[in-house]
Description:
Organism: Kwoniella shivajii
Radius of gyration: 29 Å
Number of strands: 0
InterPro entries: Pants/Emi1-like (IPR021475)
Mean pLDDT: 79
Protein name: Early meiotic induction protein 1
Distance between the termini: 75 Å
Region (Disordered): 1-38
Amino acid sequence: MAWSIFSNPFALSTSSETEASPSSSASTSAAPLPSPPKVNRFESILQDEERYQELQYPNVEQVPGCMRLLDEFLMCYALAPQLRSMYRFGEFRDCTWKWEDFKYCLSLKSEDEEARRELWVKRRAEWWAKRRVSGSSEDVWDVRSEPLHNFPPLAAEEISSESSTT
């Protein structure tokens, strides 16, 4: 069977298709087309985050400067945040991602202002999308697909009042 734009190259070929002429194969039997690719969860979350970050940083003045990012990095290693992290999680806080933000800001110095804003928006959207996909320490409850049977349980007086009225 000759390949054409009307045939599905991924469909299983049968002997009847191989014997038919190329012009009749497209008109007589249409092979099912492959389903469109599905957008995975990360891609859809990334698109949502990009829209949100565009609103968060509408112009260049809202994009943090490199000195502010350096200050945030140094404040991350201060005594109070590290002790809080040790108390809550049993380990010191890792601030390398703040250092990476600072280095990224330095690498954007050669870009023009609008390109710097767009690149910063894209970076923040990717960071938030990864964070949303990976889950949170607050994700301790499982979502129920259906409610529990007989919940909340009826009190004894409610059961007696319902049976006396019926």
